[in-house]
Design brief:
The structure is a single chain. Helix content is 47%, strand content 13%. It is an alpha/beta fold and 376 residues long. It has one domain: TIM Barrel (Alpha-Beta Barrel), CATH 3.20.20.150. Strand 9, helix 8 and strand 10 form a beta-alpha-beta unit. The protein is globular, with a radius of gyration of 21 Å. It starts with a helix and ends with a helix. The mean pLDDT is 96. Bound molecules: manganese (II) ion. Manganese (II) ion binds next to loops.
Length: 376
């Protein structure tokens, strides 16, 4: 690809950041205070705005209800607009109420299913008020012991619940169905893998698609293959980008497995123009030990660099090598792009757009001290 075109595509590339990535969060053990972290919804939007301003590659911020519930969504939209952001996906929270001990949308108790459905309907109402176009659903439902739940009936109850939610959505809204193979349930999870998520989305309709979270698969899963097949079916709705070594670690994007991330981008480029926002690319991470904003800047810039490297792949030559069963050439074509130094391209893209040369340093210099002294 010509350098000008590469810079143009990289300039248009943007991702969505999660409001929850800026606030206190942690593991099941303890949530530690990180100096300068956001305490309110306003501060989360402010922080997303800082990452957007420094990287030039954030278009929207995802919210979680009820964590980000507001009594004035016009004000929320306005706050986002002031930092050049839109409200992205609305995420219902179906895992923090006492009643959900034995599940939410798939619970055998119809009154509890009703409560969970109503919560999702409330989220759709918030989407209408904030111009959000995606309801991003992750379901904790499952069981811990064999025999505890009739697994097939639980899936059927989930579909019945989802149908009511799907019908309530506008024609230009998407339902993104996330899956995860275990946790919080340890024996079975209702939406455990891309097969169950795809089955659910097929039963609902075209506006229901699957969402791939990089931390939600068993070790060794070939995620890029899932991405390819879901794309082929027109069912790839979006991503939750993060990184992991063991399970759902929610680490900074690209920190553990940069080659896997690159291969996912290569697969995406074969179906989409990512500079055109054709797929919802959302970061989903939470940090115990890093500055929240710095971690987010790292993730955004790692995604930009990975995207740049993936554009350097010679896709025609790759296809030719594949067709000729030239295994070594095919692999070398990928490796050559992956090992490319994209610092100069990044630097040219930033200077063309008057962005800081080093977003992390700029944050330390201009923002970090002020935020810590204001927020503690
Ligand atoms: Mn996720």
């Amino acid at each position: 690809m010509e350098k000008d075109m590469l810079i143009d595509k990289l300039s248009k590339f943007s991702v969505e950041v999660p409001s929850w990535g800026f606030a206190r969060s942690g593991t099941r053990f303890h949530s530690f205070h990180i100096p300068g972290e956001a305490r309110t919804l306003n501060e989360k939007i402010e922080d997303a705005g800082i990452v957007a301003k420094l990287t030039g590659a954030v278009s929207s911020v995802a919210i979680h209800i009820p964590w980000d519930k507001s009594d004035d969504y016009e004000h929320l939209k306005k706050m986002a607009r002031e930092v050049d952001l839109k409200i992205g996906a609305v995420n219902p929270n179906l895992f923090q109420e006492e009643e959900y001990l034995f599940g939410s949308l798939s619970n055998s108790d119809s009154a509890i299913r009703r409560k969970a459905i109503d919560h999702c309907l409330e989220c759709i109402d918030i989407m209408k008020k904030t111009d959000s176009k995606a309801l991003s659903l992750w379901l904790p439902d499952g069981s811990n012991y064999p025999g505890q739940t009739n697994m097939v009936k639980a899936f059927e109850r989930l579909i019945e619940s989802l149908k009511e939610i799907y019908i309530a959505m506008d024609d230009d809204m998407l339902l993104l169905i996330e899956y995860k193979f275990f946790e919080p349930a340890f024996y079975h999870t209702v939406l455990s893998d891309w097969g169950t998520a795809m089955l659910a989305s097929n039963k609902l309709g075209e506006r229901a698609k699957i969402l791939v979270d990089l931390g939600h698969h068993p070790q060794g899963t070939n995620i890029e293959y899932i991405v390819g097949l879901a794309s082929m079916e027109g069912k790839l709705g979006g991503f939750h980008f993060n990184s992991r070594k063991y399970a759902d670690d929610d680490l900074t994007v690209g920190s553990m497995n940069p080659y896997e991330l690159f291969l996912i981008f290569v697969q995406l480029n074969e179906f989409f123009d990512l500079s055109n926002n054709e797929v919802s690319l959302v970061i989903d991470q939470s940090h115990n030990v890093k500055s929240k904003i710095k971690a987010m800047i790292q993730s955004v810039t790692n995604l930009q660099k990975t995207y740049a490297r993936s554009l350097l792949v010679d896709y025609e030559a790759l296809e030719e090598a594949r067709n000729g069963n030239d295994v070594v050439s095919a692999e070398e074509i990928l490796k050559r792009a992956f090992e490319s130094d994209v610092r100069e391209i990044m630097s040219d893209m930033r200077s063309a757009r008057s962005l800081p040369e080093n977003p992390l340093e700029e944050f330390s210099r201009k923002f970090e001290g002020k935020l810590i002294s204001k927020r503690g």
